[in-house]
Amino acid sequence: MALLLLYLNGITLGLTAILVFFYFYKRWSKSAKTKAAPEAGGAWPIIGHLPLLAGRELPHIALAALVDEYGPIFTIRIGIFPALVVNSWELAKELFTINDAVVSTRPKFTSAKLLGHNFVNFGFAPYGEFWREMRKVVASELLSNRRLELLKGIRADEVEGSIKDLFKFWEKSKDGNNQALIEMKKWFNDINMNVILRMVAGKRYFGISAAGDEEEAHRFQKAAREFFHLAGVYVLRDAFPLLGWMDFGGYEKAMKKTAKEFDTIIGGWLEEHRRKRDISEVGDKDKDFIDVLMLVLDGINLSGYDPDTVRKATTVTLIAGGTDTTTVSVTWALVLLLNHPVALRKAQEELDIQVGKERLVNESDMNKLVYLQAIIKETLRLYPVGSLLAREFTEDCTVSSYHIPAGTRLLVNLHTIHRDPRVWSNPTKFEPERFLSAHKEIDVKGQNFELIPFGGGRRICPGMNFGIVMTQLLLASFLQAFDISTPSNEAVDMRATPGLTNSKATPLQVMFKPRLPAYLYERS
After folding, report:
1. What radius of gyration, in Å, describes the C-alpha atoms of the chain?
2. Residues near 314 by Cβ (< 8 Å), separated by ≥ 6?
3. How large is the angle between the packed helices 184-201 and 307-338, nearest 10 degrees?
4. Residue 32 has pLDDT above 60, yes or no
5. What is the dihedral of CA 396, 84, 67, 438, to 10 degrees?
C-alpha cells in the first residue's frame, strides 16, 4: 500500500510539474510573440506624463513631437491609467477595422458622467446595446440623408436670413471705406445654434431677428457656453480616481451646476411638447426631434434608464455636437482663406461662375463647387475639430505586434496622421489644390484612413453629413455675399484652445462689404 501511495504521489507530482511547465511555456510563448509597446520617456513618478499633456503645447502637438524618437505607436501614463498613442494611418486602419469592436467604447471621463446624465448621453455612452439603439434612433430620425433633405428649408432659412440681417448691420455700421466690422465666431455660432435648435426642439434664440423668451435664451446661452468649456476639461479624478473628492479647481462642482441648469431648461421643453401633443396632433412636417423622441423610445431597450432622462441627455448631445463642431470647422476655413487671399479669390470666382450674382447660393449648388469642397477638406485635414480621438480597449488585443491589455486608453492623433509627409506633400501648408489632383479620390467620411476628421469604425461621428452640409452652405453663402478682409490686412492669429474641440483661441474680427446686387439682401 505504501508503495502504491508513493507511486500515485509521484504521478501526481509529475502531472502537476507538466501542467505548470506548459502554463508558463504558454505565457512565455505569448509574451515572445506579443510584447508591450514602448513607453515614452519623461514620465514623472506617480503622475506619469500629465506634465507633458498640461504643458505649453497643445496635447496633440506635444505627443506628435515624440514620434521621431518612439515611432508611430507608443504608450504614456496618465496618472494611474496607461494610454496607447497611435500616430499613423495604417495603425488607425488596423484599429478601426480589425479591432473596431474592441476600441468602440469611450473612457469614463468625469465630464461625460456629470454633464451626460451618468453616461446616458449616447455620445459618451459605453459601447453596448443602449448605445446601438440610441445611435440608430438619432441616425434614422434626425441625421439620415432623407431627414436632412426634409429639413433643408430650416438651414436655408437661417443662413439666408442671417446674410440679410448682416447686410442691414453693414448699412448701419459701415465706415468711410464702405466696410463694417463683425466678429465671425459668434455669427457662425448663432446660425448653427438656431439651426440645430429648430431641428431638435423647435426653438430659435439667437441673431438680430430672434424671437422667444429672452430670459430663457440668456440662461440657455450661458449654460451652453459652460457646457462647451467643461466638456473638454480633464479633472484630477480622471487620472487619480481616489483623489476625486478634492475637486481641484472646482470643475466638478461647475459641471454639476451646468448639468442641473440644462436639465431644468430641457425639462421645460419636454413639458411644452407634451402640452402641444395634448392640444393637437403634430404633423410630420412640423415634428422636431423631441417630438420624435416622445414617440420612439417605447419598446426600445433603455438599459433601465428613465425615458425622460434619455430624452434630456440625447437633446444635449445633439445641441452640443451639432453646434460647436460646425462652428469650429467653418471658422478655421475662413481663417485659412483670410491668410491665403489667392485661395479666397479662387473660391469667390468659382461661386461667380457656377452660381452667378443674380441669386443666392443653395445646397443644390454644392456639387458644382469643387474648389470650395477642396477648401473644406484641407481645413479638416489641418484643423480637425478634435485632434485626439479617445477610446478605450475593452479586451486584450494585439496592435502592430504589441500586446495591449484591456482597460488601456487609446489616443489616435489626427494631427500626425493628417500631416504625414509620406502621404501629404508640404504637409503643413494650406493647399486645397491637392484635393483636385493627387488626392482627388480621398474623402473625409471614414473610408480613407489618411484623412479621418470624423473618426472611423462604428463609432464614427453620426453627425458627419450634417456637419459637412452646414459647413459648405455657411462658407459658400458668406463668401458669395461679401468681400472680406482682416482689419489693417493683418494675418489672423492661428492659436487654438485646448479642449474637446480645437477652437480658435482669439476672436475672429473681419471687415466686410456686400458684393451682390442690393435686392438679394432684401427680406421677403
Report:
1. 26
2. 121, 122, 134, 137, 138, 293
3. 150
4. no
5. 80
- Taking the CA atoms of residue 194, residue 520, residue 286 and residue 365 in that order, the dihedral angle to the nearest 10 degrees is -90
Closest CA to 265 of 295, 310, 220: 220
Nearest Cα residue to 114 out of 15, 20, 235, 269: 235
Type of residue at 418: H
Model pLDDT for residues 114-170, shown as the tens digit of each residue: 999 999 988 889 999 999 999 999 988 888 888 889 899 999 999 999 999 999 999
| 394: helix, strand or coil | coil
Burial class (CB in 10 A: 0-12, 13-18, 19+), 178: exposed
- With vertex at residue 409, the alpha carbon angle to CA 408 and CA 411, rounded to the nearest 5 degrees, is 140
Q: Which residues pair with residue 485 across a beta bridge?
A: 511
Contacting residues for 65 by C-beta, under 8 A, at least 6 apart: 57
Task: Give residue 252's identity as a one-letter amino acid code.
Answer: E
| SS3 category, 510 | strand
Question: How far is Cα 194 from Cα 279, in angstroms, rounded to an integer?
Answer: 26
Q: Of the spans 50-54, 315-319, 397-401, which averages the highest pLDDT?
A: 397-401
* pTM of this structure: 0.90
Instruction: State how far the Cα of 1 lies from the Cα of 68, in Å rounded to an integer.
Output: 71
Residue 10: the pLDDT is 47
- pLDDT tens digits along 12-30: 444 434 433 443 344 444 4
